[in-house]
Amino acid sequence: MIKNKKILINGVTLVSDGLFPHLLTKYRYFQSQGYQLYILCPDKIYPLNTIDDVYTYSKQQSFYKTLHSGNISKFTYIILALTENIKALVNIKKIIKSDFDIIYSQSSVLNLTLIPFILKIFRKKTIWATIFDNTVPLFDPGNPIVRLLAWIFFHFSLVLLRQADLIFVISEDLKNYLHKNGFKLRQLAVTGNAIETDTLRLAKKSPKYNYDSLYVGRINETKGIYDLLEVLKIITKTYPSFTLAIMGSGDSPTIKKFKEKINDYNLTRNVKFLGFQIGIKKYSIIKSSKTFIFLSQSKSESFGIALLEAVSCGLPAITYDLLPYRSLYKYHEIYSYPIGSIGEIAQKLIEIFKHKQFVNLPGKKLLGKYSWEHIGKLELDHINKILK
């Protein structure tokens, strides 16, 4: 165990959700191994007290009061990310003097790579470790201007990311992508991804969450939210009271547009918005639902944590046939279809309900295979090798 080493977590653009439970689970493991953790917010650096309950921790910490609302448009978020990084730059001298051993980025997006990049210029011995979990294609669904900006920012972040000492990638495909784009193999470590296994096991079914189908994810065009409605429109011809629950959040303009489309299709009674959920309630909802549908068509989809959670809970799960899923689901754990197969997917759901096939036995076998503590251990093992 390495003691008295300090990790600075780059949180300059955290919003009101705070630190997600899965991140806190990793950070709790870091603390158990003797590391002191701090978080960089725009106004100052806050120490992370000992992490216990990962679901209530953020709201109990002083940094939480400084966070902005997450319910903002994409353009507003871009401006916010820029201004928050500028504010944080005021503290760069203090960051340098604080003698942190590691600066840790929770993602490799541009707004979380600027500060570490600048820190490495002035303090080369600080280890920069970061997560790389997706690429950003130019031609995904959505606002073309936002897509172009995201693509430009992504490629700019790749330039800055070359200064990172450790890049934790969640798949071999992403490792190969970075290597082909000039990154050194010694920088790259495949650590995978995970789900909240212990909490998932504790959750119980509840009749009040007995939805016919469930979607979990961001309310965003790239996640196939409008394809969900096309499928639902077909199903309701056979099952008029069929209920699709939507668990997740999104920016206000997208949610407004999505609800207008629901109203246009006369599906208001068939769609239930659950908002963003965590902990026992989240997994109780998943376990209580009959089926799971996730029609992301994004070329940047890399793992699909929500999909794995549903599959591990034993729900029949329907997805588009995306390349990353092929290596993860090898034994018929999911039903996958070519992108745009609206009719086939609707018929599959109708078939499932006709025969009441609501149990996914192959999927249940994945429970326990992926844990955040294990990911934390893998990351620290790589960090410790550099520190030694």
TrEMBL record:
Stated name of the protein: Glycosyl transferase family 1 domain-containing protein
Short name of any one Pfam family annotated for the protein: Glycos_transf_1
Keyword annotations from UniProtKB, A to Z: Transferase
Organism: Candidatus Shapirobacteria bacterium CG2_30_35_20
SUPFAM superfamilies: UDP-Glycosyltransferase/glycogen phosphorylase
GO MF assignments: glycosyltransferase activity
Signal peptide: none
Keyword Transferase: yes
Statement: the UniProt record of this protein carries the keyword Coiled coil: no
Domain Glycosyl transferase family, chain residue ranges per copy: 204-356
Annotated TM spans: none
